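Reminder to self: tokens first, then the designed residues, so the page reads top to bottom the way the pipeline ran.
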């Protein structure tokens, strides 16, 4: 084969390589997929829309049959009633809000740090028993909170932290879902060669962890923040908290809304207020969720 033929053949290969891959999907297929995803998104957002609509209904529309997904005479009386009831409590409403924010933020931050520190050696370390520990972490995810509630209470009582902030934070730090999530992400997203190069350059394990590993697993961390914050924000802690000034916002709002038919509107307003912070956290970090699910293998 002459050099001229080789030259032309190389040009043909280069031209083929530069060609963009075109999807063979038709316009009708694109439209069908769009319609399907639109219907699915509407179905998923329907409970939130219904909660907002219920909170704006007067009492006669709340109990109307059949229930309607729209409001004829929107009103803010339900929220006004809720804030009036909260203002008449023995403990200031701001105290309950502080308890929920403090427990949720501190608990989420501590859990992210602990889960990351525990996942790093399991994902990138080589030591005896690592496979067994990983299996125990997976098996621990199968246990429901109802199963571990009695042993958990006994441990907290023995530690002498009943009726303290620690009794609301420490049980959440023992969860294994975050360790599994970050471990899977570290295993697939961080090459071992990168860590070896950092060790050759003289970096210690803590420096590697905070300077290389933690920035690389940011999508997994943001996803873990969503799950953990939502869990701790909705937690009541009524099993361990008996002092009124230490109770969280969900338990107090539940007590307010449990006043019968007369407080049905306030109950609808409570559900809207309680879902605002988790939704805000999700909207802030939603871009990281899909990337985390792809790397960790979660569906």
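Designed residues (299 positions):
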């Amino acid at each position: 084969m002459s050099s001229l033929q080789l030259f032309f053949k190389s040009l043909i290969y280069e031209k083929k390589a530069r060609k963009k891959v075109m999807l063979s999907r038709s316009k009708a297929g694109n439209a069908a997929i769009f319609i399907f995803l639109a219907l699915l998104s509407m179905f998923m957002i329907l409970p939130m829309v219904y909660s907002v609509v219920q909170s704006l209904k007067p009492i006669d529309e709340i109990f109307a049959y059949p229930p309607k997904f729209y409001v004829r005479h929107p009103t803010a009386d339900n929220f006004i009633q809720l804030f009036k009831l909260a203002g008449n409590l023995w403990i200031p409403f701001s105290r309950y809000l502080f308890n929920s924010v403090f427990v949720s933020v501190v608990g989420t931050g501590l859990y992210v740090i602990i889960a990351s520190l525990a996942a790093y050696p399991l994902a990138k370390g080589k030591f005896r028993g690592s496979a067994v520990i990983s299996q125990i972490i997976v098996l621990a995810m199968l246990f429901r909170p109802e199963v571990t509630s009695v042993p958990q209470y006994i441990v907290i009582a023995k530690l002498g932290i009943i009726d303290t902030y620690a009794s609301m934070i420490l049980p959440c730090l023992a969860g294994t879902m975050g360790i599994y999530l970050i471990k899977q992400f570290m295993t697939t997203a961080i090459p071992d060669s990168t860590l070896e190069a950092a060790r050759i350059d003289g970096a210690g394990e803590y420096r590697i962890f905070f300077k290389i590993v933690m920035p690389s697993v940011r999508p997994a961390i943001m996803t873990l923040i969503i799950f953990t914050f939502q869990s701790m924000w909705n937690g009541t802690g009524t099993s361990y908290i008996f002092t009124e000034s230490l109770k969280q916002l969900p338990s107090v709002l539940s007590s307010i809304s449990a006043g019968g038919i007369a407080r049905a509107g306030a109950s609808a307003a409570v559900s809207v207020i309680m879902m605002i912070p988790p939704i805000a956290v999700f909207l802030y970090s939603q871009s990281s969720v899909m990337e985390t699910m792809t790397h960790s293998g979660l569906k």
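The chain has 15 helices and no strands.
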